[in-house]
Design goal:
The structure holds 2 protein chains of 2 kinds. Chain A is α/β, with parallel strands linked by helices. In chain A, 32% of the residues lie in helices and 16% in strands. In chain A, strand 4, helix 3 and strand 5 form a beta-alpha-beta unit. Classes of the chains: A alpha/beta, B alpha/beta. At the A-B interface, helix 2, helix 3, strand 5, helix 5 and helix 10 of A face helix 5, helix 7, helix 8 and helix 9 of B. The complex binds iron/sulfur cluster.
């Protein structure tokens, strides 16, 4: 019987099959281990305690992202705990021989932006990182997933992980001709997928995104989709590699060259789900009627088309669900029935590993060109990496942003999570291109609406949740 | 890691579903570089409210947490498990766990016991009517028992065996180092490395 893409990548990495009556897991080889300052210190500590070393520092790379400020990056980090975490990473990398991009380096950035742009993420690889959004790298047809700190230590010590195969779910995204309606982006697709299957719907699964829409998405748009697989509860998301993938990789610093490239492409071409393979589950999304999508609640599944209204909990029959919606609305300070377009924001955040790449910045700049961020609204534009920042500056995008009144920052996770100086104040409301709208995610008491870069830019101009089509 | 066979302690009814890891321990606590002392971050946003369950005297010393479905979803932070362990929890019961959380729990010796939704309801009722009730969780038998109530729980066989034996994962894998060497020897040479990417490394 045929195999799925996920099964092919899995099978190619089995060092040892699990066996015996206890159904031990397979031991899987890891091709690339990405490291950042938050989930690694205790792993390095564990190695030290057990007198172990990093087995393959040459398959490991570290960057500083979660804690770094995005202004005044030449100064020492003011927050003491953040500084300690970053300094600890530097010390650990030096001691264990792991290459590191520190703050200020031309290649520093969010770990999931750095890997792909260097060509380190390639089809068919196994990629792990102590961060759930490692699923991003699945856009290349890699099996990429987040791991916990003890697994980080495990990979450091052995370059393997004991794992049991994941179930597979096909997420089939189709439209009449494969194109998306105007103003609709891959962010809207994934928000709609999550709203449809729920934040637990993908649990235990690797999602494989397929269909004519996925085939036509750019590499960066694919990364946005795979990035948020975790918000649907999935372990990973994958997309079969194709010409788009190969084109993106061509000429990247770590892409193979010469005969290596030819051998690689030949191998990559076989990385597709066989026609006679079966998935454990299947969902279908039709994008012909899709419109820009935004979240109104406190989990990424609580989203609706921008034309919708805040739901009324009293009309929900399921007790648990009604309670959850009530809680979400109380935290978000929203009244049932309010048109989503009338929700006013204080802040707009454009960035993160979901939407902090060059295409995202271009899309937002396209909307902001010749317009102004509304008075009283602050907009942060935070490139996902210093390389993205340099590229944007080469294209003059930073001038568009600053002319519109937005703040142009250095690379980092920034306002995606409340770990660095870029945070929401209590009660502040934000339209954010990031991936999580949990309570307090962007700062204690902050309120998050997840949106696409296009919606973020239009919202900045109008001051209420908006799509570019709402601008005159 | 300590072996886990059977544990008895005060049960804490956490009547909430979708308790994601940001709620278990907010991001601000992740900045530490140590492996211990995360108990103060546990449910930090909720503990400020007087009526939060852990603020009631009878539950304060709890070690068996009984939560609603989808406990530990969201971010992969293992700190969520450390915070629960550091606070004194040995068992979390829920009808459904976040995958990564469940994996992390098993590795650290925190038992993530999956009980049917109806059974969680029964446990909640019991623990709420009689605060301070002790719960016994038996991993060998896969049972949760409190007063007259005994219910079963599910856990995968491998994690159960690991918990019962208290074995460290890395030692287990390094046992197969010859096979790892052999696998490495046949990896295609065009696969990328990070050597020389960073100046001076
Ligand atoms: S940008 Fe946000 S989601 Fe991505 S790695 Fe950073 S904190 Fe995590």
């Amino acid at each position: 019987m045929g195999r799925t893409l996920a099964a092919k990548v899995w099978d190619a990495h089995v060092v040892r099959r699990g066996e015996g009556d206890r159904a031990a897991p397979d031991l899987l080889y890891i091709d690339l281990h990405l490291v950042h300052e938050v989930t690694s210190p205790q792993a390095f500590d564990g190695l030290r305690l057990a007198r172990r070393s990093v087995r393959r520092p040459d398959l490991t790379i570290a960057t500083e992202d979660h804690n770094v400020p995005t202004t005044d990056i030449e100064l020492p980090i003011a927050d003491e705990v953040s500084r300690i975490q970053v300094e600890t990473l530097r010390r650990n990398c030096a001691e264990f021989g792991v290459p590191l991009y520190p703050m200020g380096d031309a290649e520093q950035g969010i770990v999931h932006v750095v890997g792909p742009q260097l060509g380190l993420t390639q089809p068919g690889m196994t990629v792990v990182c102590g961060d759930s959004h490692t699923s991003t790298h699945g856009a290349f047809g890699a099996l990429a997933f987040g791991i916990g700190t003890s697994e980080v230590e495990h990979v450091m010590a052995t370059q393997t992980l004991p794992l049991r195969p994941f179930k597979t779910m096909a997420v089939i995204v189709n439209s009449r001709d494969g194109s998306l309606p105007a103003g609709v982006t891959s962010k809207d697709i994934i928000l709609a997928v999550i709203a449809q299957i729920g934040t637990g719907g993908g649990q235990g699964y690797v999602l494989e995104y397929r269909g004519n829409v996925v085939e036509q998405l750019s590499m960066e748009a694919r990364m946005t989709v795979c990035n948020m697989s975790i918000e649907a509860g999935a372990r990973a998301g994958m997309i079969a590699p194709d010409a788009t993938t190969f084109d993106y990789l061509t000429g990247r610093p770590r892409a193979p060259v010469g005969p290596g490239w030819d051998a690689a492409v030949q191998y990559w071409r076989a990385l597709r789900t066989d026609d006679d393979a079966t998935f454990d589950a299947e969902v279908h999304i039709d994008t012909d009627t899709l419109t820009p999508f935004v979240t109104w609640g406190t989990n990424p599944g609580q989203g609706l088309p921008l034309s919708g209204r805040v739901p009324d909990p009293e009309q929900i029959t399921d007790d648990g669900e009604r309670l959850a919606v009530r809680k979400a609305l109380s935290y978000m300070d929203l009244k049932p029935g309010t048109p989503l377009r009338e929700i006013a924001v204080d802040t707009v955040f454009l960035g993160s590993c979901t939407n902090g790449r060059i295409e995202d910045l271009r899309a937002a700049a396209g909307v902001l060109a010749g317009r102004r961020v509304r008075d009283g609204v602050r907009m942060l534009v935070v490139p996902g990496s210093m390389r993205v920042r340099a590229q944007a500056e080469a294209e003059g995008l930073h001038e568009v942003f600053t002319a519109a009144g937005a703040q142009w920052r250095s690379a980092g996770c920034s306002m995606c999570l409340g770990m660095n100086p870029d945070q929401l104040a209590v009660g502040e409301r934000c339209a954010s291109t990031s991936n999580r709208n949990f309570e307090g995610r962007q700062g204690k008491g902050g309120r998050t609406h997840l949106v696409s870069p296009l919606v973020a830019a239009a919202t900045a101009v109008r001051g209420t949740l908006s799509a570019p089509a709402d601008l005159d | 890691m300590h072996a886990f066979t059977r544990h008895t302690g005060v049960g804490v009814p956490l009547r909430r579903s979708d308790v994601d890891t940001d709620q278990i321990i907010p991001a601000v606590y992740l900045k530490r570089v140590s492996r211990t002392g995360f108990e103060d971050g546990l449910f930090a946003a909720w503990r400020g409210h007087e009526d939060f369950v852990l603020n009631h005297e009878a539950y304060r010393s709890g070690s068996v947490l009984v939560a609603g479905p989808d406990f530990g979803t969201g971010s992969s932070r293992e700190h969520a498990v450390w915070a629960l362990l550091d606070y004194g929890f040995r068992v979390v019961i829920s009808p459904r766990f976040g995958d990564i959380f469940r994996g992390n729990a098993g590795k650290q010796g925190l038992l993530a016991a999956q009980c049917a939704r109806e059974d969680v309801e029964l446990l909640w009722k019991l623990l709420e009517t009689e605060p301070g009730t002790e719960v016994t969780v038996d991993l060998q038998e896969q049972t949760v028992q409190a007063k007259d109530l005994t219910v079963g729980f599910a856990i995968d066989g491998y994690t159960r065996w690991r918990l019962l034996s208290g074995l460290d994962d890395i030692a287990l894998s390094l046992h197969y180092v010859d096979e790892i060497d052999a696998f490495e020897a046949q990896r295609p040479s065009w696969l990328p490395t990070t050597t020389g990417l960073v100046r001076g490394s």
